[in-house]
């Protein structure tokens, strides 16, 4: 993920090596994570790709199959990992993640506490934000889920930045060893108000907290608990709207009111030699429209800042 070298410095520009985790990009909605193995092959609709052909190439390379088809080999950045990881739980996506990292003021060197770990989508981005000298301590009450998260963090190369613990934060709170040391705390729990008193004790003076909740009733109860020890309490809902750009044909033959007709793209274009001059009344134009797969509500993000002791 962060491509750590032997000196523990982050490098994004090295070439692919045997044993690396890479993202195979076919198109924007068809990607998969693959571990490079010199004697292995990848087979898909474009043909057979030899892993040995990938070794030594820089990330971002276009590689070809035995049939002449191609894919791109990309570095497993946190953004791409979010799109290909195994969903053990509902995950946070890029729009929410970027907002969380900014509003929690997560920068290199920070100590961040997280509960629960889930599929590790947010954890991966937090790890990149605190690198190379910070650390993320993430907790999940489900032992098998925590073990799977550890394996993923090993695969993506961030295990030196993340420690996964098994703990029910709602009932037990965060470990006392972090008392007063955390720069930020993130909660993704069914009843976050039960963990807020413990989170308050973990935070440094003026530290920040974020709670993710899918239901507004959870937000209301959390805010009631936050008012006693926190200030600057805000709740946001992030709605991401994506657009598709497609080529359409615009008919230049006018109606009486001067309007023109836009036709959807044809499956096969007629060769220009078969079109007479009189028939050539349309030209291509790029049209933008909202994607039919636009994601709606994911959850509410509530942020608060610990009050400084007087």
Automatic annotation (TrEMBL):
The keyword Transit peptide is assigned to this record: no
Listed name of the protein: tRNA (adenine(58)-N(1))-methyltransferase
SUPFAM superfamilies: S-adenosyl-L-methionine-dependent methyltransferases (SSF53335)
Domain tRNA (adenine(58)-N(1))-methyltransferase catalytic subunit TRM61 C-terminal: 69-305
InterPro entries: SAM-dependent_MTases_sf, TRM61_C, tRNA_MeTrfase_Gcd14
GO cellular component: nucleus; tRNA (m1A) methyltransferase complex
Compositional bias segments (type: Polar residues): 272-284
Keyword hit for Phosphoprotein: no
């Amino acid at each position: 993920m962060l491509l750590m070298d032997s000196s523990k410095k982050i490098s994004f520009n090295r070439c692919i090596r045997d044993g690396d985790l890479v993202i195979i990009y076919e198109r924007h909605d068809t990607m998969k994570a693959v571990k490079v193995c010199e004697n292995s092959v990848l087979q898909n609709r474009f043909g057979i790709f030899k892993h040995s052909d990938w070794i030594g190439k820089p990330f971002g390379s276009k590689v070809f199959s035995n049939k002449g088809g191609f894919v791109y080999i990309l570095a497993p950045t946190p953004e791409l990992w979010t799109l290909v990881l195994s969903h053990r739980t509902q995950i946070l996506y890029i729009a929410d993640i970027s907002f969380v990292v900014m509003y929690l003021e997560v920068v290199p060197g920070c100590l961040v506490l997280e509960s629960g770990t889930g599929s590790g989508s947010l954890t991966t981005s937090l790890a990149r934000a605190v690198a190379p000298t910070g650390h993320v301590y993430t907790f999940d009450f489900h032992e098998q889920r925590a073990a799977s998260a550890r394996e993923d963090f090993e695969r993506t190369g961030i295990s030196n930045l993340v420690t996964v613990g098994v703990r029910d934060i709602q009932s037990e709170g965060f470990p006392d060893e972090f008392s007063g040391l955390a720069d930020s705390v993130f909660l993704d729990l069914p009843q976050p108000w039960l963990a807020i008193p413990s989170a308050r004790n973990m935070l440094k003076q003026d530290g920040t907290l974020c709670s993710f909740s899918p239901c507004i009733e959870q937000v209301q109860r959390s805010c009631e608990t936050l008012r006693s020890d926190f200030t600057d309490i805000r709740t946001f809902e992030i709605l991401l709207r994506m657009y598709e750009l497609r080529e359409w044909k615009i008919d230049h033959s006018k109606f009486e009111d001067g309007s023109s007709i836009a036709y959807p793209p044809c499956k096969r274009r007629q060769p220009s030699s078969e079109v007479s001059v009189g028939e050539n009344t349309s030209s291509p134009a790029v049209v933008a429209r909202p994607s039919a797969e636009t994601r709606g509500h994911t959850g509410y993000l509530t942020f608060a800042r610990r009050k400084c002791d007087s």
